[in-house]
Amino acid sequence: MTVVDPQQRAYVASQAADARVNVELETGGMTLNMGPQHPATHGTLRIVVRLDGEQVVEAEPIAGYMHRGYEKLCEVRTYPQVTTLVNRIDWLGSFANEVPFILAAERLMEVEAPPRAQWIRTILFEMSRIANISLFLGDMGAQLGAITPVFFAFRDRERALNLIESATGGRFHPNFDRIGGIKDDLPAGWVEDCKDVMGRMRDFCDQIETLLMGNEIFASRCRGVGVIPADVALSYGLSGANLRASGVDWDLRRDVPCGLVFDQLDWKVWTHPDGDSFARYWVRLQEVRESTKMIDQLLDGLPAGPIMAKVPRIIKVPAGEAYVETENPLGAMGYYVVSKGDLVPFRVKIRTPSFNNISIVPWVMKGVYVPDVITILASLYFILGDIDR
Amino acid sequence: MSRLSSADSRATSEEIPATEAADTEEAIEVDEAREDLLADLRAELGDALVDTHIDPGREVWARVSLESWVAAGTFARDGLACHFFDFLSAIDWMPSPFGRDMNSQEDLIVDGAPDSAAQAPGGAAADEQATGYAGGDTRFQLLARVHAPSRGLGLILKADLGDDPDLLRAATWVPVYAGAAWHEREAWEMFGIDFEGHPNLIHLYLPGEFEGHPLRKDFPLLSRRVKPWPGIVDVEPMPGEDEATVDTSEADANEDATEAAAE
Amino acid sequence: MGLVESGKMPKPMTKLLNLSRKYSLWMYQWGLACCGIEMGAALASPRYDMMRLGVIPFPASPRQADLIVVSGTITDKMAPSVRRLYEQMPDPKYVISMGSCTNCGGPYWDSYSVTKGLDQIIPVDVYIPGCPPRPEALLDAIAMLQAQIIDEDPAERWKGEPLVVS
């Protein structure tokens, strides 16, 4: 085939020259070990990355540096003790970890918490989502090099933590849920403080939006990076905002009824069709805003009444199996509780969202550049305790 | 409604129609969507579907034969629209031979001070190897859950693996659901189940030199064997509570007993 | 610094060096788990600002750090990394163990994969109890450490094992 057009000829010649240079400069692959102590990996995740130049050929995450053996420990602890322990799986939004376990135990005991307890549980559940995701909003910027939003995030998160502390007594790890209800009622003045803080969180979201999402560098680093199509996401078991950012309209709060009162609120599920890192960030930002609105509605409609149903003092859960999955801040978290009628559960299988979210890393990292590795990890958003249990 | 029923739930659907069920005191709920799901599964698998259980409005369990494990997964994904892979794990149904090596206040009130020489696992029923929903014949059982987002239903699949802990083998689900790779690695690590055809069956959580399979019931937690639980304290009754409900004399007696036994 | 190692420093010089060291600790943050978030809150949050105590929390590598705050559960898989990191730090170095997981194993005291306490691997100067301890507790621990530093004999710190890189 002869090329007559001079411009085309020049183009073809340059491509040929390029190919020659590439062949001459062929380098051996390099193995880069990121972690287990690395500022970008949210804890002790180790990723072994095989590189060809700047491109990733293979990436393998090595988990287990925070494996504490939860499922074995749950078999030797009574149900209230398991509640305490289970707070520490997803350690940023701690209250949300207790909820599916308590709901599963209540299902086995055929006990339903009174309405006020259910509403307060929902409020704290959404509050833990705000505490968790607001850190993500600031932290993703830090991973990409934008240090300022982290300080905004920590400052506004402190307000949410203050609220959680005044209600439950603990900044994290509140250990507030009980089988049959919650531990204490809300203190006086909490509702007004909460409304005030929700207004400030909405301001924080607006600030972050102008700081980060409008930033050209952020957009160009995140758009089109780490695209995960919907069918791949489903087969790997991705959940939460990761799934919704790939266009799948599925939210456990709306679709699977459990003991929380989301069906009585007016709210929206946010999805994004792109499936890239920018979409995941965008969906989470909208979800925080939506959570603040939901909490406002919950505070307005909070019913009066008792906060604890009648349960025996010593909790023996009848024999049976139950699986409850809720839409936790990180994704879909579920507890498969097998009980044999004893004081302790017989087997607890903890389905954590980050475990599935990170199992997609070998697939999604093929062919990306090294800086994009950080972007993708940051946008998938995991917590080590959630991966490793 | 019996909870450990391994009876075929389809039999109940023909007895009382749903409209009348609301009037009777003990309503037998009919969960038609889940019944249909089980009907499709039975049509596909035939005899390989060993047992089922439905918790109406909530979950459906199906126990399949081990040989049809992959076929069940493939049909769930293609025929039942269960595209979302939730988790895959296993259950060891043997009651733990070690008990809990611990006595909380609740244990002392419920069971009395235990015989420190022979730690009974607590409760007479614990001697039997009872199994859960949809039955089970062997000590080890595979457990997996998949979900159909378009239908809003989930399906829990179980399969009997066997009694011999050294001979646990199953076919891999990786061709069916890509996310099963890590779950099967964890199941291998924790229970010792060998998944045939798995691309990368190596340690996931534990360091390479770790010996044993932790989630098996005969794997002891050594700290508990060696040290008594540090949480037993002298408990004062709450203000307003009477002394009778919190009996600390047994706790003190137990402490002396364990100290004497430890020496 | 031969004078310091051999212990022949005059007392006022010692005091001056200790003073300068205690107000310019470079902290390497080994934030592993939940306590790491409280440590991050102590550092990056404008409320519990740690830099006002003189602690700079962002050294680029352990070789530039003289204080390490280990916060979070240490598993048996992670323990060799902690040991290696400690050995990479040059003398004089200080270790703060934050939270009950690093103090003694914490709520996971009976787990099969958790190291029951940081002091099984490296020597610890200050223990902070709590699960998680409040950020103010970390500030209190640093103040306690500073009180330790001002009175110590630097020769003892420098007479430790040679710098081992495994």
How does this model look, in words?
The complex is a heterotrimer of chains A (389), B (263) and C (166). Chain A has 389 residues and is an alpha+beta fold. Chain A is built from 16 helices and 8 strands. In chain B, the strands form 2 sheets. Chain B has a 5-stranded mixed sheet. A two-stranded parallel ribbon of chain B has the order 6-7. Chain C has 166 residues and is an alpha/beta fold. The two termini of chain C are 25 Å apart. Chains in contact: A-B, A-C, B-C. At the A-C interface, helix 6 of A face helix 3 of C.
SSE layout and pairings?
The complex is a heterotrimer of chains A (389), B (263) and C (166).
Chain A: H1 6-24, E1 30-34, E2 46-52, E3 55-62, H2 70-74, H3 79-86, H4 95-109, H5 115-143, H6 148-168, E4 177-178, E5 181-182, H7 190-213, H8 216-222, H9 230-236, H10 241-244, H11 252-255, H12 277-300, E6 320-328, E7 331-339, E8 347-351, H13 353-359, H14 361-364, H15 370-380, H16 384-388
Helix pairs in contact in A: 3-4, 5-6, 5-7, 5-12, 5-15, 6-7, 7-12, 12-15
Chain B: H1 10-13, H2 18-21, H3 32-45, E1 49-55, E2 59-64, H4 69-78, E3 84-92, H5 105-111, E4 140-148, E5 153-162, E6 169-171, H6 180-191, E7 194-196, H7 222-226, H8 249-262
Parallel strand pairs in B: 2-5, 6-7
Antiparallel strand pairs in B: 1-2, 3-4, 4-5
Chain C: H1 2-6, H2 11-22, E1 27-31, H3 34-44, E2 67-71, H4 79-88, E3 94-98, H5 100-104, E4 126-128, H6 135-150, H7 154-158
Helix pairs in contact in C: 2-6, 3-6
Q: Can you tell me the residue ranges of chain B where pLDDT is under 50 for at least 5 consecutive residues?
A: 1-26, 113-128, 243-263
Tertiary shape of chain B: globular
Global structural class of chain B: alpha/beta
For this structure, the CATH topology of chain B is Beta Polymerase, domain 2
What characterizes the major β-sheet of chain B?
5 strands, mixed
**Shape type of chain C:** globular
Distance between the termini of chain C: 25 Å
Computed over alpha carbons, the radius of gyration of chain C is 16 Å
- Total strand count of chain B, please? 7
- How far is the N terminus from the C terminus of chain B? 51 Å
Domain module tally of chain B: 1
Oligomer: heterotrimer
- Structural class, judged by helices and strands of chain C? alpha/beta
Query: Portion of residues in helices of chain B?
Result: 25-40%
Q: Please state the average pLDDT score of chain C.
A: 83
- pLDDT < 50 runs, ≥5 residues of chain C: none
What is the count of helical runs of chain C?
Answer: 7
Spatial ordering of strands, largest sheet of chain B: 1-2-5-4-3
Strand order of the largest sheet of chain C: 1-2-3-4
Order of helices and strands of chain B: HHHEEHEHEEEHEHH
